[in-house]
Design goal:
Rossmann fold; 6 helices; alpha/beta; nine-stranded mixed sheet
Amino acid sequence: MGYHKDVFIYQRRKPMRAFIIQHVDFEGPGYLLTWLQKNNAQIEIIHIAKPDYSFPTIKDIDLLIILGGPMSVNDEKEYPWLTHEKNFIRQAIHAQIPILGICLGAQLIANSVGGKVYSNNQQEIGWFPVQGIVSSDPTKMVFPEQFITFHWHGERFDIPEGATLLAKSQACPNQAFQLNRRVIGLQFHPEITLENIQNLIKIDGANLKPAPFVQSAETMLSVSNEYYKSNHDIIDQVLSYLTQ
């Protein structure tokens, strides 16, 4: 599963073949599936923590999505598949495959190309604002000047060499980056659904200890549908941008 020398340059085919790397059962793709289904994509989910997982051939991928998870990218001894996953991500970047990484997925992208991942100064869990940063490069993805989105993380990534910072928050200065035209990493969770949040609280609710940027379960679950809709609009924009 090491790095291959063969280079396959991304070429769009129809229908789109989308592969999702999922690290744990309770952090699923959420609204991402809705977008992919609306766009008539062929979808395959790779459950990488299970012993029978396998990666597709790079040239068969039209879109790669890497989801979140509770482990750290630095836990390679405990989770040996992390090494294989980083190698695979490097191959996909080199082949100019459109890639979206969310939370752990973004950290894996950053780390696979040399960026450090380490503990943030504080946990960021719940609905908190993020500020978009307009790049001087007109080809970069543009996020809203400010929007409220969902967070569930205690680590952060450094922006990889050659990448552009696209968003920040008060609790975490690096919330989104873009590497070349085809790769975007998000520390936050715009794909989130009510079911996703319920699963996170059920499995990982021990993290909900009072802190400046940690909300209660009741607060997280009480937001209006507009919170979800505005975040799903961001997914629409990001995936349309990556696959256009």
